[in-house]
Amino acid sequence: QVQLVESGGGLVQAGGSLRLSCAASGRTFSNYDMGWFRQTPGKEREFVAAISKSGYRKYHADSVKGRFTIARDNAKNTVTLQRNSLKPEDTAVYYCAARDYGVDLRRGQYAYWGQGTQVTVSS
Questions:
Q1: Distance between CA 63 and CA 48 in Å, rounded?
Q2: SS3 of 77, please?
Q3: Hey, which residues does 39 pair with through a beta bridge?
Q4: CB–CB of 53/70 below 8 Å?
Q5: pLDDT of residue 1
Q6: CA gap 120, 12 in Å, rounded
Q7: Burial readout 69-80 (b: 16 or more C-beta within 10 A, e: otherwise)
């Protein structure tokens, strides 16, 4: 199986930028489709972005489209989420996730999860 560790969270002002990274270890990283999700207290974990094994196909939630960009580097076993024009409503714990069989936007389809990284956007 694969182990995932997120990094790059922190406090940022509205309008600013922040890049999240997820480092994978264990099985071959390029065997996994990857996703980013986020969660705020009292709410369900929601889809943010996903990317296919090769990096060719990318998907972003409507709420972040045009502001966030998912990317991966299979040589470095990392997936990133570049986030620009941040808004206070982007405040959440962000999770990296992996699955074996195809890109999916549903959190229930991901078998492997990181521990999450907190991002706080101040107004």
A1: 8
A2: coil
A3: 93
A4: no
A5: 87
A6: 6
A7: bbebebeebbbb
Strands 33-39 and 92-99: antiparallel
Given a contact cutoff of 8 angstroms between Cβ atoms, the answer to whether 86 and 123 are in contact is no
Q: Find residue 72's DSSP bridge partners.
A: 79
In 10 A of CB 49, how many CB atoms? 24
Q: Where are the alpha helices (DSSP H) in the chain?
A: none
Q: How many residues does the chain have?
A: 123
Cα 16 from chain centre: 18
**pLDDT tens track of the chain, all 123 residues?**
899 999 999 999 999 999 999 999 998 999 999 999 999 999 999 999 999 999 999 999 999 999 999 999 999 999 999 999 999 999 999 999 999 988 889 998 999 999 999 999 999
What per-residue confidence (pLDDT) applies to 88?
96
Burial class (CB in 10 A: 0-12, 13-18, 19+), 52: middle
Q: How crowded is the C-beta side of 28, counted as CA atoms within 13 Å? A: 4
